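Box S1 | Example of a co-folding query
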Amino acid sequence: MKIIKSDLHAIAALPSQYPKDDLPEIAFAGRSNVGKSSFINAMINRVNLARTSSKPGKTRTINFYIINESFRFVDLPGYGYAQVSMSEREKWAKFIETYLTTRKNLKEVILVVDMRHEPTNLDKMMYEWIKSFGFRGLVIATKADKISKANWQKHTKIIRQKLEIKDMDLVIPFSSEKKINVDKVWKVLEPVLDKTKDQ
Ligand code: GTP
Ligand code: MG
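Box S1 (continued) | Returned holo structure for magnesium ion
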């Protein structure tokens, strides 16, 4: 994918704040601090368009990034972050749930996990939910630069086992830091976007 243009399009909590056109969207869900915002920056070759932080709980709203004026990446608040109040966490969960269950533009939801760790029960719930809605169930296993390549397979196997994934191609090791597998992920996402163009 040749990225000609990328911009922050909208920041939303409520549906009335979502962009009103019908451009296709791909959303990224995952635990806080796994690297969702960094992943978006790496894919569109921007340093800090999506704001990142070493402290969990950075993204607290639904952030829409418009790419090449033709589709959007949607950065969702991370879940599973214990350091915020229950009421705040419930609020974010509601934002995410409303977006995921009502958004017509949504073409794919991708789970982002930290490759070093076994997915949590919350990840598993999110993954099952993604599958139940008929999405493909692609998993980005990021921070791959923190593991030697010889151990990648061991880690992706742990991820596949916890999430009960049979198809090895569904879990893609990725590094935002070292830009590993940017092209490979675009190859998987391009058909999703092309399909919507033909409809
Ligand atoms: P929330 O917004 O809190 O949900 O977090 P997030 O999932 O958006 O994570 P973010 O992209 O802010 O990254 C969290 C931390 O992990 C930052 O310090 C990043 O620099 C670091 N990080 C993200 N991706 C990678 C990666 O591929 N490799 C390495 N080494 N560090 C990474
Ligand atoms: Mg973030």
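Helices lie at 36-44, 86-102, 121-132, 152-163, 182-198. Residues 30, 32-38, 52-54, 56-59, 77-78, 142-143, 145-146, 175-177 surround guanosine-5'-triphosphate (ligand 1) (CB under 6 Å).
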